[in-house]
Amino acid sequence: MAAQRRGRDRGSDSPSGVGSRGAARVRMTGKERRQQLLDVSRALFAEKGFDGASVEEIAHRAEVSKPVVYEHFGGKEGIYAVVVDREMQALLDRVVSALSAGHPRELLEQAARALLDYIDNSTDGFRILVRDSPVASARGSFSGLLNDIASQVEHIFGLQFSARGYDPELAPLYSQALVGMVALTGQWWLEVHRPDKDEVAAHLVNLAWNGLSHLEHDPVLRTRG
């Protein structure tokens, strides 16, 4: 009877810590289990990519049986799509919420710093996003996410261009250029992590705001006090 109960536990959605060490199990609700599987999968996808990860390893790291993973997400593709969607929304929310200052240069600073903050604080998530995803998520690809962010910047650029006598139809071009520059620099900075975030953001804004012909020698962020 005890053996049957142990077998049922391995296939159930209740355990959170098992097995080879004989540690005591803690029951999880369905919501808690789903979040645990997402956390485990997020780390695994960041480490090995979609192709390198497997349902077997997700289940092993979560200390559940494979059917538990299938029950919640239908397979590796399903859990990967949810992980990507969540990361995209988190990054978009971070950038959009950062755009609060009135002066255009300060808005550029806030957008650049928000992306670098995300890269620094959610490194696993960013590594997942910048890989070529083999699975179509609800929000599309990383390039689609950058388009979402660029559309927010485009609106701000359009207002500023109109107010300053520039052609507002050029706003999409400039917003794509700016977001692409920051995103690619962020990928590079993820690997080298130098200089620090404020200095990287300051130099990005220096180039975007002043252009190569009027670069400041020692740029600083005005919004960082």
TrEMBL record:
Coiled coil: none annotated. Residues 54-73 bind DNA. The keyword Ribosomal protein does not apply. InterPro entries: DesT_TetR_C, DNA-bd_HTH_TetR-type_CS, Homeodomain-like_sf, HTH-type_TetR-like_transc_reg, HTH_TetR, Tet_transcr_reg_TetR-rel_C_sf. GO terms for biological process: negative regulation of DNA-templated transcription. Residues 1-30 are annotated as: Disordered. GO terms for molecular function: DNA-binding transcription factor activity; transcription cis-regulatory region binding. PROSITE patterns: HTH_TETR_1, HTH_TETR_2. Residues 13-22 have a biased composition (Low complexity). It comes from the Bacteria. Residues 31-91 form the HTH tetR-type domain. It holds the Pfam family TetR_C_46. The keyword Metal-binding does not apply. Keywords: DNA-binding, Transcription, Transcription regulation. This is DNA-binding transcriptional regulator, AcrR family.
